[in-house]
Fold:
Amino acid sequence: MSTIAHTDRTPAWPTLLGVQGLVLFALAVVGWQLRSGVTPQGTPVHARLEALDVPLASAAVEAAIAQAQDGAAVMEEDVLRVTSFLSLTARGADLEVSDIRLVPMEQQDVRGVQIVEAVLDVSGHLFDLPIFLDGAHRQRAVGRLQAMAFDVQPGGGMQGQVRLHYYRPKAMDTSWIEGRLAVTAPEAVELAPVLERAATLAAWGAFAESQPRRAEKARHARSRAARELPANLIELQASGGRFVWDADEGIVIR
Structure:
């Protein structure tokens, strides 16, 4: 690691890990002050902020974000990749996709992790649906089969929707940080962009921490669909009807 020249604004611990920790701690403290209405000046955390080397802090946070980024998340720049994969997978299963869209939801999986719902309008033969569902999970982005609803004609022709849930980190609102620092730690206002990026780092941390649970839920939903669909699809192929499947509730035939 290259040597960084010491100045009167060098942090007390000249390591990237220490800088990351201080920046995240400062973000939490300033956020707590905003929620609680407390505006103390001259506190130890503010003194450390004012003494922090801004370029070093920025480099530390950016390095941490680069390391934390995970291909299992579906970011805005991944929309085309994911929709193209789903569309090609459906075509490979002899299904027709008339529309596909990814919709960010207000609902969060856990704090800092947003749900992105993929909605596919699908038609084709009923027996090709399991082939598509199996293939849809074979990508870097981790998605959970959430729901299906199809109208089925005798003989197996069908038309309906498939919904999958994907996930991405969503940083807290940081628009208030610069103004807050101007009040509580005026000498540290230039650190505002670093604290804003620290919110992104914290969101990636929340994503990483909760990802194993999401992966397990995705496996459970996939396994449930594999158990419940075959026998019911055979029955629907003969009689026709409407079926609705939910990851938590299972299948209902109407």
